[in-house]
Specification:
It is a single chain. With 190 residues, the protein is mostly helical. The protein has helices spanning 10-31, 40-62, 79-103, 108-131, 133-157, 167-185. The two termini are 22 Å apart.
Length: 190
């Protein structure tokens, strides 16, 4: 489901997506320096290319550039925690991609990429949980910690004044959708 927004919110969503894509690009680059299971590194490299393309596209649309970082962000070294963090941020990115496509249907390819990224990490965390044991417990703990921080993150993403009339509903919608995903994958208790 796409939450409908008026065209007056387009720039705010585009600007937020630019910031999110820049963050995702750096997170994926950093994740590639960690010890990850076979097959994940190849996906992360492709993911990095896609994020770089998205970033360039948003910079062109907005006529601005994202701030460049000089150092990669710190990412968890344990795969179970890293997978949870990447999955969480990809689910958040997916919700913003849906908002974006509601305003700009010409950007549907970005939504498709976000759906693929979420699917990959959803499969990764599901695999961790299915194996059970300490890795699954650690993944659930990481997911609960990430989820506790999520409302503040969403608030930052929705701070633009053009989103004020929709902020409370959007916030609730985004949190509900992510909670539903976390429940289905097995992070949250029913």
């Amino acid at each position: 489901m796409t939450y409908p927004l008026p065209s007056s919110c387009e720039r705010a969503i585009l600007e937020q997506f630019l910031k999110a894509e820049a963050m995702a690009l750096w997170a994926v680059r950093s994740a590639q320096t960690q010890d990850v299971p076979p097959g994940v590194l190849q996906f992360l490299r492709r993911h990095e290319e896609e994020e770089a393309q998205h970033l360039k596209q948003f910079e062109q649309l907005l006529g601005t550039s994202s701030h460049g970082k000089t150092a990669l962000p710190r990412m968890p070294s344990q795969w179970r925690v890293l997978a949870v963090q990447l999955y969480g941020y990809e689910t958040l990115g997916l919700e913003f991609a849906k908002l974006l496509v509601g305003l700009r249907p010409d950007l549907t390819s970005i939504l498709k990429d976000e759906e693929e990224h979420v699917g990959f990490f959803e499969h990764a965390v599901h695999t961790i949980l299915v194996h059970g044991g300490p890795a699954a417990d650690g993944a659930r703990q990481a997911a609960q910690a990430w989820r506790r921080r999520l409302p503040r993150t969403v608030d930052r993403y929705l701070q633009d004044e053009s989103l004020a009339p929709f902020r409370d509903e959007l916030r609730r919608h985004i949190l509900d959708v992510i909670d539903a995903r976390f429940l289905v994958v097995g992070f949250l208790a029913r």
